[in-house]
Design a protein that fits this description.
Blueprint lengths: L6 H4 L22 E3 L1 H7 L4 E6 L9 H14 L4 E5 L3 H13 L2 E7 L5 H9 L3 E5 L3 H14 L3 E2 L5 H7 L1 H10 L5 E5 L4 H15 L8 E7 L4 H4 L21 H10 L3 E5 L1 H15 L5 H15 L8 E6 L7 H7 L10 H5 L5
Parallel strand pairs: 2-10, 3-4, 3-6, 4-5, 7-8, 7-10, 8-9
Antiparallel strand pairs: 1-2
Helix pairs in contact: 3-4, 3-7, 4-5, 7-9, 8-9, 9-11, 12-13
Bound molecules: ligand F0G.
Pathway: Amino-acid biosynthesis; L-threonine biosynthesis; L-threonine from L-aspartate: step 5/5
Catalytic activity: O-phospho-L-homoserine + H2O = L-threonine + phosphate
Cofactor: pyridoxal 5'-phosphate
Length: about 350
């Protein structure tokens, strides 16, 4: 097997790069597409269910696909600094790829509202971490204004190169399955990823790599569901901090994706998200972060509503790794038992 060279080299002909573009890569992409038969049996019998485990990217989320593009293009354009607002993963990814490129990275995060693993990444890669006393939407407004006036490149998904990179996840799925799935389910926050996937599926079909297009089904958290409600949510709330967003930047293109694909955007409650989060870890051995499990909660909802026919191929994107947010995992799990360091004390706990 030849060595995986990261998404820019592997999907070069679908990306806006030239021989002059410096490729800033950490080997992102090539993430596992895991068949989840046990989970399917439980939540959607008869469905051929797959998990696209994007937590296996270099910084533990799908953002790396977009960031390799955004940082490479920023360096090509001569940028010395980049900036983003983030609920955590974008900041971790920007910090890592920025470090790799040797440029300055500024990240704005909502104070106290991002998972600790993500904060540790941004800090460790020496980004300038600015906590704003506000939410993601306010931080995004600020970075948009600053990048328009200062020599600092915006690397949020408003940057078109981010979407270009992220579309490669759809292409990998098609390469793995031999065709596009029937239904694609994913979490929606700022709505860049659903936009990117749809673009990837369409381009692959246009290039005759696939014969069909999936229905795009996006799920928001009920406390942060502006697209479902049809209006901006001023004070979004959810346990899934990664998608705690009340005014998504790619709102319109997400609507286009669901319209063109005969899909939909719906919502699930925090309770449903945490249930799915625990289930996928227990049934399949796959540890994702809470926001990622929104897609699995979405599959449960679709299945219960009779919307997934038998034989349907469904792919769920698990956007980020569970280790990003160990606090939530520990909080909902059975606690470890502490015993004396003797054979008998431990043996008493074995129920075999
Ligand atoms: N899942 C995770 C783990 C995320 O971090 C995000 C977005 C999403 C889903 C939603 O993707 O925004 O493209 O609809 N995180 C951004 C961030 C906002 O700053 O890390 P989306």
């Amino acid at each position: 097997m030849s060595r995986w060279r990261g998404i820019i080299e592997e999907y070069r002909k679908f990306l806006p790069v030239t021989a002059q573009t410096p490729v800033i890569t950490l080997g992102e992409g090539n993430t596992p597409l895991i068949r989840a038969a046990r989970l399917a049996k439980k939540i959607a019998p008869g469905v051929d269910l797959y998990l696209k485990y994007e937590g296996m990217n270099p910084t533990g989320s799908f953002k790396d696909r977009g960031m390799t593009m955004a940082i490479s293009k920023a360096v090509e354009a001569g940028a010395r600094a980049v900036i983003c607002a983030s609920t955590g993963n974008t900041s971790a990814s920007a910090a890592a790829y920025g470090a790799r490129a040797g440029i300055a990275v500024y990240v704005l995060i909502p104070a106290g509202k991002i998972a600790l693993g993500k904060l540790s990444q941004a800090m460790m890669h020496q980004a300038t971490v600015i906590q704003v006393e506000g939410n993601f939407d306010q931080a995004l407004t600020i970075v948009k204004e600053l990048s328009a006036t200062y020599p600092v490149e915006l690397v949020n998904s408003l940057n078109p190169f981010r979407i270009e990179g992220q579309k490669t996840a759809a292409m990998e799925i098609c390469d793995d399955l031999g065709d596009a799935p029937t239904v694609h389910v994913l979490p929606v926050g700022n709505a860049g990823n659903i936009t990117a996937y749809w673009s990837g599926y369409r381009e692959y079909r246009a290039a005759n790599q696939t014969t069909r297009l999936p229905r795009m089904m996006g799920f928001q958290a009920a406390g942060a569901a502006p697209i479902v409600l049809g209006h901006v949510v001023e004070a979004p709330q959810t346990v899934a901090t990664a998608i705690r967003i009340g005014n998504p930047a790619s709102w319109q293109s997400a609507l286009t994706a669901v319209k063109e694909s005969s899909g939909a955007i719906d919502m699930v409650t925090d309770e449903e998200i945490l249930h799915a989060y625990a289930l996928v870890a227990r049934e399949e051995g796959v540890f994702c972060e809470p926001a990622s499990a929104t897609s699995v909660a979405g599959v449960i909802k679709l299945s219960q509503a009779g919307q997934l026919q038998e034989g349907t191929t469904v792919v769920c994107t698990l956007t980020g790794h569970g280790l990003k947010d160990a606090d939530t995992a520990i909080g909902i799990s059975r606690q470890p038992q502490t015993v004396k360091a003797t054979r008998d004390d431990v043996a008493r706990l074995l129920h075999v």
